[in-house]
């Protein structure tokens, strides 16, 4: 639980959409709001490296909280065991991040040995692996739980949710009644899926659950919530900017 809770500014899944992130941050008041990222900073988008550098800068300068998403977990697995996790990471959008970290083409990534790629990434970004490992799976704040994917609401105590489920759960969380007594802010599943409408990327709200992955990397929006310890105060959103 965060001590002495101030207001939060909670940003949804970014996935390398760096210009949209910079635009959304214009709505953040660093003097009054603690910055929280809900995970999935990388993969699929056009500039994951720029997003990482921005997140690291904000973490260093403002002590921003960075929650662990499934894409951070996949990158960490790849760095630790390249032979076993290379294909899984590539199939889930990781090839763009590898290209951007190493400034090489997709063709070169595909033709390279996984261990060599990992060695180059670790040489270029020696703190990356430790940073990924340091990311929490969730935080509590006032009457809120903030987590990347969701919780196992079938459990007597939601805190017994597995690390994997914190990052990967979908339908079972969305469809199970929320009896935690708290509001849950989550990302991971694009809100177009939750709304069952490809053209509706607005924030999803149901059963004291707030879905804020607006699917920006898929043409939707990048969302943030301004929240007090007891309520969502404001929704801030940025559509995909022209030229991307």
From TrEMBL:
One of its GO terms (biological process) is RNA decapping. One of its GO terms (cellular component) is cytoplasm. InterPro entries: Ap4A_hydrolase, Calcineurin-like_PHP, Metallo-depent_PP-like, Ser/Thr-sp_prot-phosphatase. Residues 9-192 form the Calcineurin-like phosphoesterase domain. Gene3D superfamilies: 3.60.21.10. Coiled coil: none annotated. It comes from the Bacteria. GO terms for molecular function: bis(5'-nucleosyl)-tetraphosphatase (symmetrical) activity; phosphatase activity. This is Serine/threonine protein phosphatase 1. It comes from Facklamia miroungae.
């Amino acid at each position: 639980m965060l001590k002495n809770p101030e207001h939060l500014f909670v940003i949804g899944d970014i996935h390398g959409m760096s210009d949209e992130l910079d635009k959304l941050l214009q709505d953040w008041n660093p003097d009054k709001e603690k910055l929280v990222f809900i995970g999935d900073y990388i993969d699929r988008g056009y500039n994951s490296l720029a997003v990482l550098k921005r997140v690291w800068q904000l973490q260093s300068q403002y002590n921003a909280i960075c929650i662990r998403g499934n894409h951070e977990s996949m990158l960490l697995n790849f760095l630790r065991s390249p032979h076993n996790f290379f294909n899984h990471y590539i199939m889930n959008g990781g090839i763009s991040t590898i290209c951007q970290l190493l400034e090489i083409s997709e063709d070169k990534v595909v033709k390279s040995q996984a261990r060599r790629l990992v060695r180059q990434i670790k040489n270029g970004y020696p703190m990356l692996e430790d940073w990924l490992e340091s990311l929490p799976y969730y935080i509590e704040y006032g009457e809120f739980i903030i987590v990347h994917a969701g919780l196992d609401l079938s459990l007597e105590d939601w805190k017994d949710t597995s690390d994997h489920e914190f990052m990967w759960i979908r339908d079972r969380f969305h469809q199970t009644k929320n009896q935690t007594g708290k509001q849950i802010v989550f990302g991971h599943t694009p809100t177009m899926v939750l709304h069952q409408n490809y053209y509706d990327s607005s924030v999803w709200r149901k059963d004291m659950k707030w879905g804020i992955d607006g699917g920006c990397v898929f043409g939707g929006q990048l969302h943030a919530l301004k929240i007090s310890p007891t309520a969502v105060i404001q929704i801030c959103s940025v559509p995909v900017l022209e030229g991307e």
